[in-house]
């Protein structure tokens, strides 16, 4: 079934680009579009068909993947740039961007009103650029049960596991929960290392003490290694991490989670210093300065 799926990938940033590359490598006919065409042409050199517009990208697709920054970008592609109108009858729209609860509800209404013949899946991913490149994402999928068999071969190319979590909207909710946990882990690493500095400890001594600790999961271990090398190149950019925390807080009543509010305020301060494009671990450097 996977060989017969024709896939359009719209958005070729830090996540969409490796996802599209893996689809091409798996031999799936892949159409790509990106706002900056240079990235699309690079994937075109590896076998993807490059489209000039989102509408052109999806006309022959069985599955359309959107992987862009936020809900406004998704809606612009879907409506202003003609993607939704151009999708074939019965096609699957796998919306894999992190756009929050309200954004996903807007898309569900849009599809229901304008294209009820299109199957919408709300399927954000857990994992950053490294797992995306390795095809080891965890896909937090939600939507109609009847779409599972059709989409599973494609999701198997992109991820190591697909968790089906309920109807459309459940995937986005789980993603916010997941990313808030990541935020606290990242902040914990940053504050622990900065505390070590404040107590007069050498940074490397602190990092060495963390090695093999039962408290340090593989994701945190990889982040600690990069911190030790002062490598803050973006795997999960701080500006996007902050966006995800803000989306989580938007979905609940004000002041319900004061610690998360405080974390968001601190990260906003780091972003305002011009560090939003660096990895989320750059908070460590900001706290040590």
From TrEMBL:
Keyword Acetylation appears in the UniProt entry: no
GO molecular function, one term: oxidoreductase activity
Keywords, ordered alphabetically: NAD, Oxidoreductase
Active-site residues, as the UniProt record annotates them: 175
Residues of the signal peptide: none
Ranges for domain 6-phosphogluconate dehydrogenase NADP-binding: 7-166
Record has Plastid as a keyword: no
InterPro entries reported in the protein's UniProt record: 3-OH-isobutyrate_DH-rel_CS (IPR002204), 6-PGluconate_DH-like_C_sf (IPR008927), 6PGD_dom2 (IPR013328), 6PGDH_NADP-bd (IPR006115), HIBADH-like_NADP-bd (IPR029154), HIBADH-related (IPR015815), HIBADH-related_NP60_sf (IPR051265), NAD(P)-bd_dom_sf (IPR036291)
Gene3D superfamilies, sorted: N-(1-d-carboxylethyl)-l-norvaline Dehydrogenase, domain 2 (1.10.1040.10), NAD(P)-binding Rossmann-like Domain (3.40.50.720)
Domain of life: Bacteria
GO biological process: organic acid catabolic process
Domain 3-hydroxyisobutyrate dehydrogenase-like NAD-binding: 169-286
Family label: Belongs to the HIBADH-related family.
Record-linked PANTHER family: CYTOKINE-LIKE NUCLEAR FACTOR N-PAC (PTHR43580:SF2), OXIDOREDUCTASE GLYR1-RELATED (PTHR43580)
Protein name (record): NAD(P)-dependent oxidoreductase
Provenance organism: Micromonospora globispora
């Amino acid at each position: 079934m996977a060989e017969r799926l024709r896939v359009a990938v719209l958005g070729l940033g830090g996540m969409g680009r490796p996802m599209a590359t893996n689809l091409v490598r798996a031999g799936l006919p892949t159409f790509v579009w990106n706002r900056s065409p240079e990235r699309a042409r690079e994937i075109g050199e590896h076998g993807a068909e490059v489209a000039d517009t989102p509408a052109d990208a999806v006309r022959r697709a069985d599955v359309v993947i959107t992987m862009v920054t936020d809900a406004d970008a998704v809606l612009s592609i879907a409506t202003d740039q003609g993607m939704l109108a151009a999708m074939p009858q019965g096609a699957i729209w796998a919306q894999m961007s992190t756009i929050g609860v309200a954004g996903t509800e807007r898309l569900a209404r849009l599809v229901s009103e304008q294209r009820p013949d299109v199957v919408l899946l709300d399927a954000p991913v857990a994992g950053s650029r490294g797992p995306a490149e390795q095809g080891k994402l965890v896909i937090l999928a939600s939507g109609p049960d009847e779409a599972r068999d059709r989409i599973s071969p494609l999701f198997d190319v992109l991820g190591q596991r697909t968790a089906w979590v309920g109807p459309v909207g459940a995937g986005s909710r789980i993603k916010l929960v997941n990313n808030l946990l990541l935020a606290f882990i990242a902040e914990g690493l940053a504050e622990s290392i900065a505390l070590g500095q404040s107590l007069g400890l050498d940074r490397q001594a602190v990092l060495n003490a963390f090695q093999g600790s039962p408290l340090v999961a593989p994701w945190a271990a990889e982040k600690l290694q990069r911190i030790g090398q002062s490598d803050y190149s973006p795997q999960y950019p701080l500006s996007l991490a902050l966006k995800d925390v803000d989306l989580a807080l938007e979905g609940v009543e004000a002041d319900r989670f004061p610690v998360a509010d405080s974390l968001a305020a601190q990260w906003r301060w780091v972003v305002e210093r011009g560090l939003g494009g660096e990895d989320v671990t750059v908070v460590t450097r900001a706290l040590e300065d």
